[in-house]
Amino acid sequence: MTKDVVIEHGESSKAPLVPAPVAAGVSRAVSIADVFLRFLAIVATIASAISMGTTNETLPFFTQFIQFEAKYSDLPSFTFFVAANAVVCTYLVLSIPLSIVHIIRPRARYSRLILVFLDAAMLALLTAGASAAAAIVYLAHKGNVRANWFAICQQFDSFCERISGSLIGSFAAMVLLIVLIFLSAFALARRH
């Protein structure tokens, strides 16, 4: 004897709407995408940190004995940018094993919740570092006439190209972290 259950409008059932093998496959695909995006974010953050950290340019002034030098460590915002990218890169490397666990055990819930919180914290740190550096890069390109800060990018063009390029990698990593947070939230929402 089979018992037919009729669900009226507004009621819910404990039975999943998607069969278990299909749901596990979707969760596994989300976990694989998570690992892949983490690797991309690692590449973006380490490239940004290295690009900014190795940036310097020297210009001669009248003679070779008197020179002007521009390097990232002259500005605390750039130093913070390098440190923030290094910290986020280290976090992403350390979070890879946990992401691999989600491929093996797609129903792991608490570890994914921890990743959402830590990803959000790293996104905030990366945003702060990139924003601070972007403000200085803007001043380097445009200057500020009211404060008598002159644009230095006309003289230090190689320096300015590298610091601008390092911002691109950092902002790309920010977008990847946002996607990672959404993927983890999606995976958590599918379990309820």
From TrEMBL:
Keyword Cell wall biogenesis/degradation tagged: yes
Primary location group: membrane
Top-level lineage group: Eukaryota
Localization annotation: Cell membrane
Alphabetic keyword roster: Cell membrane, Cell wall biogenesis/degradation, Membrane, Transmembrane, Transmembrane helix
InterPro entries to which the protein is assigned, alphabetical: CASP/CASPL, CASP_dom, CASPL
One Gene Ontology CC term in the entry: plasma membrane
Transmembrane intervals: 35-55, 75-101, 113-140, 167-189
UniProt GO BP: cell wall organization
Membrane topology, as annotated: Multi-pass membrane protein
Residue ranges of every copy of the Casparian strip membrane protein domain listed in the record: 28-176
Any Pfam family the entry gives: CASP_dom
Subunit structure: Homodimer and heterodimers.
Family: Belongs to the Casparian strip membrane proteins (CASP) family.
Function: Regulates membrane-cell wall junctions and localized cell wall deposition. Required for establishment of the Casparian strip membrane domain (CSD) and the subsequent formation of Casparian strips, a cell wall modification of the root endodermis that determines an apoplastic barrier between the intraorganismal apoplasm and the extraorganismal apoplasm and prevents lateral diffusion.
Name of the featured protein: CASP-like protein
Organism: Miscanthus lutarioriparius
